[in-house]
Amino acid sequence: MPELPEVEALATDLAERLVGRAIRRVDVTEIAALKTYDPSVDALRGATVTDVHRRGKHLVVSVDSGLHLVVHLARSGWIRWRDAAPRPTAGRGRGPLAARVQLEPDGDGIDITEQATQKRLALHVVRHPEQVLSIATLGPEPLEPSFTEERFAGILAKAGRGQIKGVLRDQQRIAGIGNAYSDEILHAARMSPFHPASMPPEDVHRLFEALRHVLGEAVERARGVKVSSLKAEKQQGMRVHGRKGEACPVCGDTVRQVIYADSTFEYCATCQTGGKPLADRVLSRLGVRR
Fold first, then answer.
1. Domains of the chain: residue spans and CATH
2. Fewest CB atoms within 10 Å of the CB: 88, 147, 154, 278?
3. Which residue has the higher pLDDT, 226 or 31?
């Protein structure tokens, strides 16, 4: 799933390509992805893009008519830049394309795709981004100056006995962190994914420093990377996530995996759990909200 660093890089790249360009048309090919009907996507025709930015895991494309196209890429969504007008696709069958934005004057633009059996990608055309519920209920941005260690401590205290892995991923508590970066943050903090969120101040400090370092480093690493290379860059930067069976780069122990529901996470037992392997748990025990 694209998370804060990748969506930030996507927003930066798309801002350079889209701002100042007029929209020729927006075609939605996966009708279930469109979650709004008023205003319609046709209302974007002829409008000029004024800004592209990120909020949590959402991309927000703003135009001069006051409307916003909000894209949530979910687990398997992505943005692909297209240098030329698209060729006709009639007769090719259903594919990964969810929506297509064409620009004036040449028809170049972006394809919004989703490579998944379960379609979760979401598109909204709204007059204000806060009209999208998943934006209106977002927690604070973890790299903003206002996200202080004191504020973080309050979030953890409120979560109580909730497992820290799920708390970090809960978008209503902290915006933008998903499965991959929560694995990386907890590994950097040398903390078990099942550790209770309520913890002593010294543990809060260690976790806060790990969170800011891991996310900040990932954002810098992704800065300037081409959209087509962002996924590969993300994986290369991971220390434990997606590296089951490999050696931990810190201690050399084997990275282990826990499977729960339709997802997984990875960790190092030596670094994070005192050498004790974790038993599998179900997703509901982690209390995750997308």
1. 4-136 (3.20.190.10), 149-286 (1.10.8.50)
2. 88
3. 31
